[in-house]
């Protein structure tokens, strides 16, 4: 940086669109599709996302895929301790420059999926406009981390958001929904983002969700492995009845007698479709599966 160059603080004060353009030119950036790089340009949306995170009064924020700081800048303004992961060295360099005078922001030039540090804490929130090619593993890692986060505020593909917050009986309802319900007590939509909210534009629209994490898994579940096996079994053949789907699911290998015993113990009608079961019914099914397979 020459003496004529603006200071990082001047760039942070620029409106988001201008700031992104300046950083792009200055650091000679070319968006990498292979890393899911779509940079948020919509300042109002960035504000709403950060506001959704602020509702949890975090002390610490972990950001996944900080990019050019569209969320990091308003988060830093709110005075949180921020750990921002960014795997692309060029972007990490730009971020280190942008926050050089802000000790509360720590840039981690690292693949988030490879990091093995303990994450979360009583007042920790995870935030990110996630790279779409690895949305599921990132969500899995964040939700399963220990001590864990109070909440996640994440932008995902609209279609994935619909699956995460789906109601029973809908096409979108499936194993991902139940996985989310297991770890999150509440899922709410914050905003819908059209492709034009990003540069370059992704092919599909996006949605930001706020997930309130459970401090502990639901206590009624006797065996998590059985819960998830029951979910897989019930959705193994969506067009079959619950009984037939369970009976023929490769992951369960049940006999007719075992299948009937499970349905009876769970007090569920085997003629229903698996996709009509709500979360509590899946808990009963998982507990019954656990009990019957241990007995026989
Ligand atoms: N947060 C920025 C924004 O909203 O403009 C960028 C969002 S962009 C959709 C996703 C970002 O995640 C990119 O900057 C990309 O380089 C980064 N990324 C991709 N894979 C990653 C990984 N495995 N670990 C950390 N960051 C990653």
> Strand content of the residues, in percent?
15-25%
SSE topology string: HHEHEHEHEEEHEEHHEEEHHHH
The CATH superfamily of the largest domain appears as: Vaccinia Virus protein VP39
Large-scale geometry: elongated
Number of helices: 12
CATH class of the largest domain: Alpha Beta
User: What oligomeric state is this?
Assistant: single chain
CATH topology assignment of the largest domain: Rossmann fold
Brief digest:
This protein is α/β, with parallel strands linked by helices.
Describe the structure.
The protein has 296 residues and is α/β, with parallel strands linked by helices. It has 2 domains: 8-213, Vaccinia Virus protein VP39 (Rossmann fold), CATH 3.40.50.150; 224-295, Orthogonal Bundle (Helicase, Ruva Protein, domain 3). 39% of the residues lie in helices and 18% in strands. The chain has 12 helices and 11 strands. Strands 4-3-2-6-8-11-9 form a 7-stranded mixed sheet, sandwiched between helices. Helix 5 links the parallel strand 3 and strand 4 (105-108). Helix 9 (224-234) packs across helix 12 and helix 11 (256-266) packs across helix 12 (279-295). The longest helix has 17 residues, at 279-295. It is elongated. The N and C termini lie far apart (72 Å). The mean pLDDT is 96.
List the helices and strands and how they pair.
Layout: H1 8-12, H2 16-26, E1 39-40, H3 43-54, E2 60-64, H4 72-77, E3 81-85, H5 89-98, E4 105-108, E5 119-120, E6 124-129, H6 135-144, E7 147-148, E8 151-157, H7 158-164, H8 175-183, E9 184-193, E10 198-199, E11 206-213, H9 224-234, H10 242-248, H11 256-266, H12 279-295
Parallel strand pairs: 2-3, 2-6, 3-4, 5-7, 6-8
Antiparallel strand pairs: 1-10, 8-11, 9-11
The chain binds S-adenosylmethionine.
